[in-house]
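Problem 12. The chain below contains 442 residues. Write out its predicted structure in token notation.
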Amino acid sequence: MKRISRPASGIPTVRRTPAELDVALNALREGSGPIAIDTERAAMYRFDDRAYLIQLRREGAGTFIVDPTGHPAKLREWQDALLAETPWLLHAAHTDLPALLALGWQPSVLLDTQIAARLLGCHRLGLSLLLEEFLSISIPKDKGNADWSQRPLPNSMLAYAALDVEYLVPMHDMMIKELAELNRLDWYRQECEHDRLRATPLAAPQWTDMKGASFLRPGTRAAIVAEALFETRTKIARSADIPPERLLSSKTIMSLAPQRFSAAKRDLTAEFDRLVRGPGADRVNPHRHNITLLSLLDALSRAHNEPTTAITTQKTKNAIDKDGELFGSIRPDAKTWEEDYPQAWVALEILRESNQELSESLGISADAIMVARQMKFVAWEFTQRLNAPEFDPGDVDAVEELLGNLLQHAGLRPWQVELVLNDATPYLLDEVVDGATYEESS
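Solution.
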């Protein structure tokens, strides 16, 4: 194993000025092949996950490190001048694309070494681990959580950043060769295109993104409190450019939401006392904590004085599976299916077994084919529509079309749909559809 701590051509200088950016752009335009791209962000130190450094490398041009914070308008020109017509090569692109799209950049073709590794059955998907496996080289990976917003950046951090793109192209070439030998190149293209199309620029945070917030009914006191505390926290954190979670954690907000005002006020005050003076106190802008506490207490008070609008409803017998909302439907919790919805339970078990068998036979992770929420959606909707009065469960072609449409609606790509259809359809026809046909005839 060869250990590498600095780029072969030396540590690139950071391009900041318009003239320096033009030099980098012209050099990259003269290169050939895809552009290897990576970003360094500072979400642990700043308000959001925007890029503070961008590394780009292309064969025949070399590596360039760009500071995107000084002249974002200049960088937007790169889209038409270079980036729109050149394939992008990243590792774990889904983590970098929101920051890059926020700059006005947009790939027309996306390549991703992490996706390739997953389809090759690699168990270790981190960049440094894959470089060890494919190229027998080791690069440092100890600065990923460093503060990349600091200026100036030391050479050790610039070397670390440059190495993240130094070997992407040769490793990708090896992966493509192996994928071709396994007849999985089309799978790879579909997965990359899927990630390219679903990527969105950095967006303003929403209170419903907090863990557990989806279980709060809109208009209830708890929902009003959670939203008010979240929006106040967001406003303060954005103004100070500090991480919202370090100001007040979402877990704390969710614990305060259902409490009476007096108890919530007491606990919020105690939490800030811990933040400022307690063990492991957070020292992010400590001089702002008193103002912050007063602002949050005011938001808490206003939320408790705001009238509720939720309509009280009777509790249903079964819990609701909130994953169903991802696909525009609500269904009973899958834990109740075996007893209360046996047909849906059988369909779910068949899909689970099929997924596991495909995973083992192909040598790839089961999650690369289907994930749990997709299986639950398909199993539930399949049995519901199978028993609809207008549907003929005896029409095998209609049953296969229904299953294929549901798999596609759940987000499976064509290669995944084909695999699951071929493997699971016979069992569903035998154990689920035939049962529905029998019940209909009797």
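Discussion. The chain has three domains: 2-198, 207-310, 334-440. Students who got a different answer should revisit the alignment rule from Section 12.3.
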